[in-house]
Specification:
The protein folds into two domains: 46 residues; 42 residues, no CATH class. 33% of the residues lie in helices and 12% in strands. The chain has three helices and six strands. The chain has a two-stranded antiparallel sheet. A two-stranded antiparallel ribbon has the order 3-6. Strand 1 and strand 2 form a beta hairpin. Helix 1 crosses helix 2. It is globular and about 40 Å long.
């Protein structure tokens, strides 16, 4: 968990799933994505996020928040998300890091 005076970044809780599924099912929230998600798809997304945390020790976090908490971005590390079609405005993903000594 990372925390500041105003922010806590933590792992997912079971109680987060319902609200996350509501957000993912809302057409307005998802208007920049391929389509809204079903509850099953949303839960599977959380499962993938958590599995990657377990495998790699890091995972998805919110973009502008990263800079505010001191993470750094090198544009050479950005990547295209493979599940987004070519030309989609959200295909490009940004990678932020925190150096061990920080």
């Amino acid at each position: 968990m990372l925390s500041t005076e105003r922010l806590i970044l933590r792992r997912w809780r079971e109680s987060d799933r319902e609200l996350f599924a509501c957000l993912n099912a809302d057409p307005e929230v998802m208007r920049h994505f391929l389509r809204p998600l079903t509850r099953e798809e949303s839960d599977a997304f959380v499962d993938r996020i958590e599995a990657r945390f377990d495998e790699r020790g890091y995972g998805l976090r919110a973009i502008r928040v990263m800079e505010r908490i001191g993470l750094h971005r090198d544009p050479r590390d950005d990547f295209d998300y493979p599940n987004m079609p070519e030309g989609h405005p959200l295909r490009r993903h940004l990678l932020y890091r925190l150096k061990r000594e920080e």
